[in-house]
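User: structure tokens for this one?
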Amino acid sequence: MKDRIDKIRRKFGEFPLTVKFLISSVLVIFFVLIVLNVLIYFDFKNFFIAVDRKGFEKRFKKSLLSATSYYVFRNNWNENMDFSPILNILSNEPNLIEVIIFSPEGKRLSVLYNKNLLKNEVKSEGLSKALSGEISYSIKKVFDVESFGDIKIPEGTEYVQEIYYPVVFGGEVKGVVEIYKDFTEIMDNIDSVRYRASVFSLFGFIIYVLLLYYIVRKIDEKERALKEKVVYYEKLSILGQFASKMAHEIGTPMHVIMGNIDLIQEVYDDDFIKKRCDNIARQINKIQNIIRNYLYVSKKPEPSYESVRLKDLVSDILSDMSFMVSENISLKADVDDVVVFTDKGFVEQILYNFIKNSADSIGENVGSIKVKSKVDGDFVTIYVIDNGKGVDGKLKDKIFDPFFSTKKTGKGTGLGLAVCKELVEVLGGDIFCESKNGETIFGIKIPLKGKDA
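Assistant:
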């Protein structure tokens, strides 16, 4: 038994705090409701009976003193007395069945209805108590009533109230009044109250459990979200430290490479070499921008605005990307020849990520990637459209979350689209994704004249 209790205690200790609170609260309330229902079941009957008894005694004493002659109390009761005043008083009692008047010796002297009762001499426990000066007050099933075979009990009666009331004067019992009343209606009311109390308690308990479960679930969801945020910011912190170290370590070699490129261009006056050197320089700038943008994941980026010709920007990106995508994939552009006042590096980084993801989606299959644009008022929308595998509708809300990736381990970090979203929001624009009818569209909508222009 002790081992079982220890096992339950250990198991309970493994639950989250919210689950412990839910279980403990439910058990406490359940125990309280059980206790309350037990009290209602047993004590409510006693309460009803006590109230009814108090009311009867008050009515009887008042009526007896006002309507019965004084000598009735002064003398011992016998066959020669007229008990009609007492009987008339008691005939007004609600649900009355019968009244029997006894002498101080326990002999039946008078009845209200059935005169045959006078022939019987029953010395009951209740009468014995009354003859000694104690009021006897009891509720019995109809078949347990001592005079069941003699009194006329109304049809449908299940419970009978039996009262033995001693009439005392000068410290002596002068006589006893026995009253039979139909108590069925009151007992039905008691049972009805018990039933309603149990039903309402059960209903209230269910509502309480459901409400408590809802609250605990919300708390649990917030707790999980908070834990996820803590893990997320821990990852960002590690990423920021790594990117900062990489920026420092790579910065010097990059400057050396850029210096050598400038030297080569000065020494060799050849268009082919110059074109390739320009290409290398652009890639180095992209590497620097990528490192800078990954630093921005843990710190809000600050854009460096300049006038950018969109057509030339997209042309350079597709030229650079042509060496990185499969020969089975065609790269096309259909963009407006507009000038955008924005951060060139941000837009390059975003479109680079979009095109790379499209190429990964197509894989080794034959496919196409097209970059389009549309000017609408003060904004320009840039689309990257591919005919790859597409994006599952269930994942659309998650693809821009940091560290979320559908690629295999080692193929992606889950930061590319998260960085894109961060950069677009800094530029004052929106990022979106649509996937339908065999086409997947990643796009951004940014101001033509900058965020604060």
